[in-house]
Fold this protein.
Amino acid sequence: MDQTSEVMRILQAMERGERLAAEQLLPAVYADLRRLAAQKLAQEPPGQTLQATALVHEAYMAVADAENDPKWDHRGHFFMAAAEAMRRILINRALQKKTLKRGGDGQRVELQEADLVISVAGDDLLDLDEALQKLAENSPQEAELVKLRYFSGLTLVEAAEVLDISRATASRYWAYARAFLKKSIAEANSS
């Protein structure tokens, strides 16, 4: 029996639900899948860490998954499905790398009240004042919050009460104001 007939026999046995057929499939198609995986990986940019063997195994698990109840018309149909599985695996890995590259592995950290204080040296007070004036032009309530926190030493809760806003709103205003001021001060220092 040639390899094509053997693979079709195994695929049909898998369709009938024969449990041992899935175990016979990988050895029968391994060399072809390995070649296909090597071709796919050769098209990837340098620095690819996935090996052809790992790609074959992941693709095989996706294609031969009994829950998917595959219906194979012919050997080529199986290999088209395997190629598609490899493509999806490579795309998912590329998306994952891109996400990690852009800080996707960051974890949310709760900041303590003390972490939120703006620290400005004496000479930088002029830069802070200039940045605060810019903030007040577009966001007067956020600027008032900064003045209450920085110059009066009020906590976020106390400043929220003075401004008659909720603590959540005060937190959002404070986060925005800090980012705005840091950016403005950095721009002033770089020029």
In short: The chain has two domains: 3-101, 113-190. The chain has eight helices and no strands. The mean pLDDT is 75.
